[in-house]
Design brief:
The complex is a heterodimer of chains A (about 450) and B (about 350). The longest helix of chain A has 21 residues, at about 375-395. Chain A is globular, with a radius of gyration of 25 Å. Chain A has a domain at about 405-445. Chain A has helices spanning about 1-15, 80-90, 110-120, 140-150, 160-170, 185-195, 215-230, 245-250, 265-270, 275-285, 330, 365-370, 375-395, 405-425, 430-445, and strands at about 30-45, 50-65, 70-75, 95-100, 105, 120-125, 205, 235-240, 250-255, 260-265, 340, 345. By secondary structure, chain A is of the alpha/beta class. Chain A has 15 helices and 12 strands. Chain B is built from 14 helices and 12 strands. Chain B has helices at about 5-10, 70-75, 105-110, 120-125, 130-140, 145-160, 165-170, 180-190, 210-225, 235-245, 260-265, 270-280, 325, 345-360, and strands spanning about 25-40, 40-55, 60, 85-95, 95, 115, 195-200, 230-235, 245-250, 255-260, 335, 340. In chain B, the strands form 2 sheets. Chain B has an 8-stranded mixed β-sheet, with helices on both faces. A 4-stranded antiparallel β-sheet of chain B has the order 2-1-4-5, covered by helices on one side. In chain B, β7, α9 and β8 (about 230-235) form a beta-alpha-beta unit. The longest helix of chain B is centred in the middle third of the chain and has 18 residues, at about 210-225. With about 350 residues, chain B is α/β, with parallel strands linked by helices. Classes of the chains: A alpha/beta (about 450), B alpha/beta (about 350). The interface between A and B is large, with 43 and 48 residues.
Chain lengths: ~450, ~350
């Protein structure tokens, strides 16, 4: 807890305008897993000597903590490093650098032998219920494997315990001697869950636990995981790409982009007022099962192109190549993950729904100008208005210190305003926003 | 060749007449059945499905895996091997019957008049050939043009689907494309002959939401531009709500509910449709504490449950009098307008259950 407070005060010092009440309600729970500066780079080797010529930076410096009894959801596009993160925190893969603390104990560099007792407490549920069960073993032997490997003799014998577990996850205990191929996808996933729960773990890392399942079966498994958490007091890290599922299961959510956490917040804050433009774009892209909202397409933000390669991630903010708000600072300076609002950490220079963290930097990058065409006017307008309001409020409180690099801001806002005016012809509502922008430009000129 | 020209030429030569209620439909399917005989028994993947799609309209087909969605689409395209699959029923494409037609005739239509976008672009594209070569092939099969012209056309299509630097990417191999790009390239391949019917089988399932949004927009734009009829097969009700005009819900190889998209979401009539809606976590609503899944497993298509195939999983199976849900197979009945549902529950019961029990929980 003290850790978060410390981080928060550090953040406040670096960034002037932000909420300064670090009293975090959810921080009262004990931290089970703490990850600091975690990186995982996969070397790329070439040539006769297998010299390293580069690295896939799958996970590139992430910090977060998981508290006892909570569910942390991790979302992101494919290739953002979320699965690698899951495999590194369970030590299925060794981190390149950084530290992982489980119950206050550093497990980053534990040897395989020393790690073994820890495996009891940290278990994993895998994505593919077909690939994660050995087809030549019976269900009984699959679910009892953890007992054999750990040398644990449960009360009443292994068989009885396995049957209890099968019943717990909603399978018929009489199926003890059947083989995986005799089960459907949903049932196989239940077998995987039974195996993960065999040793009464404290932390379960689930990598896309339901994405291979049909919707109706998916709901069964989601409910099952929910029940088990309440019954057994489990802590989950659920990695998924489906934002609706993650919203349903998680207490807090981390959004990853190219090996970094760009936003980490509790569920309500994240879904109601996402601060990172990427989070906003990601959420706007989720198809809503409500045909009457189809007309209201205005909220949809289309991102340009694909996620850049993690071999050579963009400089500065990694999202700047696709962001409609990107300015010069985004290309040069990497934004830190700071707690802007209680329980909401964001790594962005120009967050949504909050005061701009780099208001002096107003020149849009060319990539951003292109990208902003794909962002509906309503969104731009709204974000401009919110940012204006927040910035003005912040400026009013901070005594005017207007020695911003004027030479730079002088010329460009006018050009910007022109561009704004052009779009204003198309959408009359835009005019208001353009006006606000102009007045803002004037105020900075003074 | 237009419908009128065909009529003038005396086509179709088949003795069956096009269904009278489907005059304006571009594609009409009547009682399509696709059965596979296996060592374990006869698999009735599709067992009597009928629907119409008009030009410029999108039909969404939803259902669980194994409900017969994909088999239906492959059947429309005539892609089932005759030795393995027994296909019966009628498929009318622009006034031409396809099921009984000469395979060569169907092949001439395939790719030109009707085209398909597959779920997995990595396995649908040949890894050995360049992307451009595969698009060029698709174009030259149906158009007598030089390679150069076809290449220009392929570049134009790649550009149209939003692939940057199409003149360079055309010489790339499928593995050099990212998932979203590959899917775009496949869409370009499917659209290169301006097909009037486009069947998309889970075109976005393997993709991230951001890319999915791009692809759906693309399909929508292209449809607007060419006025094609689109069949969108998916298990994601969100995608259906986004893009479809009509929805067909399949269960156990049969259609259990069919209707305009608004009615399917506002006034669904079948307990399975309720189950699908209840299973889905929704991003646009307050979070419910629990989802309401459909209990049990999808049915086996070899031993389809007697009576209503959904009865073992249906929470309301005991409501209708007698043992009717277990003995009599419900037929599609008109609810109103174009909305049809196959359920034994009385209309009052359905309305009551939907408004009182299901809708408030969504």
């Amino acid at each position: 807890m003290s850790e978060t407070n410390k981080k928060d005060t550090a953040g406040t010092a670096a960034v002037p305008h932000q909420a300064s009440a670090p009293a975090d309600g959810s921080a009262e729970r004990e931290v089970l897993l703490r990850v600091k500066g975690l990186t995982k780079h996969f070397p790329i080797k070439k040539g006769l000597l297998q010299r390293q010529v580069g690295a896939v930076k799958a996970v590139d410096g992430i910090d977060f903590e998981v508290r006892k009894g909570e569910t942390l959801g991790v979302v992101g596009e494919s290739g953002c490093g979320k699965s690698t993160m899951g495999r590194v925190i369970t030590r299925l893969q060794d981190p390149t650098s950084g530290s992982i603390e489980f119950e206050g104990r550093d497990i980053t560099r534990l040897s395989t032998g020393k790690m073994r007792p820890m495996r009891r407490d940290v278990q994993m549920i895998f994505q593919d219920p077909y690939g994660s069960l050995n087809p030549r073993h019976t269900i009984g032997s699959i679910v009892s494997a953890p007992f054999r490997l750990q040398g644990v003799e449960p009360e009443g014998g292994v068989k009885k315990e396995v049957q209890r577990l099968l019943e717990l996850v909603g399978l018929n205990p009489e199926h003890y001697n059947r083989y995986p191929h005799e089960f459907s996808g949903g049932q196989r996933q239940r077998i995987g869950i039974a195996r993960a729960l065999a040793l009464k773990p404290k932390l379960v890392v689930a990598d896309e636990p339901v994405s291979a399942l049909d919707v109706s079966i998916q709901a069964q498994v989601v409910n099952l995981m929910d029940d088990l958490q309440q019954e057994l007091g489990l802590t989950y890290v659920i990695i998924a790409h489906d934002l609706s599922v993650v919203r349903h299961v998680s207490d807090r959510i981390a959004v990853m982009y190219l090996g970094k956490i760009v936003e980490l917040a509790d569920r309500a804050s994240l879904y109601e007022a996402p601060m990172h433009p990427y989070t906003k774009a990601l959420m706007s892209a989720v198809p809503v099962p409500d045909p009457s909202r189809r007309g209201a397409k205005s909220e949809r933000i289309l991102l340009l192109g694909d996620v850049p390669s993690p071999i050579a991630p963009p400089s500065g903010c990694r999202f700047h190549t696709r962001c409609w708000k990107a300015t010069e600072i985004c290309r040069t300076t990497e934004p830190q993950l700071v707690e802007l609002k209680i329980g909401q950490r964001v790594a962005c220079h120009h967050p949504e729904n909050f005061a701009d963290q780099a208001p002096q930097d107003t020149v849009l990058l060319s990539a951003a100008k292109e990208a902003s065409e794909l962002v509906p006017d309503a969104v731009l307008e709204e974000s401009a208005a919110v940012t204006e309001a927040a910035t003005e409020a912040a400026e009013a409180s901070a005594t005017a210190e207007d020695t911003t690099p004027e030479a730079k801001t002088d010329a460009e806002p006018a050009a910007d305003a022109d561009a704004e005016a052009e779009t204003a012809e198309e959408a009359p509502a835009e005019a208001a926003a353009a006006d606000a922008e102009e007045s803002a430009a004037e105020s900075t000129d003074k | 060749m237009s419908k009128l020209e065909k009529a003038a030429l005396g086509e179709p030569a088949t003795d069956v007449a096009a269904p009278s209620d489907a005059q304006d439909a571009f594609l009409s399917v009547r009682d399509l059945r696709i059965h596979f005989s296996t060592d374990d028994g006869l698999v009735k993947s599709v067992d009597g499905v009928s629907f119409d799609v008009k030009r410029g309209q999108t039909l969404g087909i939803v259902g669980e895996s194994g409900s017969g969605k994909s088999v239906t689409s492959l059947g429309l395209m005539g892609l089932h091997r005759a030795a393995n699959a027994k296909v019966s029923g009628q498929v009318w494409l622009d006034g031409q019957e396809l099921i009984g037609a000469d395979p060569d005739e169907v092949r001439r239509l395939r790719g030109r008049k009707m085209a398909m976008i597959f779920q997995d672009p990595l396995s649908a594209m040949h890894p050995y050939y360049k992307v451009g070569a595969q698009i060029v092939e698709a174009y030259r099969v149906h158009n007598k043009v030089s390679k150069k012209v076809a290449r220009t056309r392929a570049i134009e299509m790649l550009d149209r689907v939003g692939i940057p630097e199409p003149d360079k990417r055309i010489d790339g191999y499928p593995h050099e494309f990212s998932g979203g790009m590959r899917q775009r390239a496949m869409i370009a391949m499917a659209l290169v002959n301006n097909p009037e019917l486009l069947i998309a089988d889970e075109p976005t399932t393997a993709l991230d939401v951001t890319v999915q949004a791009q692809i759906l927009d693309l399909i929508r734009d292209l449809q607007k531009e060419f006025g094609s009829a689109v069949i969108m097969i998916t298990h994601d009700l969100g995608v259906v709500a986004e893009i479809a005009d009509d929805v067909l819900v399949m269960y156990g190889g049969r259609c259990v509910e069919r209707g305009p998209v608004g009615e399917i979401f506002d006034q669904p009539q079948h307990p399975y449709t309720w189950g699908l809606l209840g299973s889905m976590p929704r991003i646009d609503r307050e979070t419910a504490d629990r989802l309401t899944p459909v209990k049990g497993q999808p049915p086996s298509l070899i031993n389809v449950p007697s009576g209503c195939a959904f009865h073992p999983r249906c929470p309301y199976a005991d409501l209708p009098k007698g043992n009717v849900t277990r003995t009599v197979r419900p037929e599609l009945e008109q609810v109103e307008g174009g909305h049809w549902s196959a359920c034994h529950l009385s209309a009052e019961d359905r309305t009551r259950i939907w408004t009182e029990e299901i809708a408030p929980k969504l």
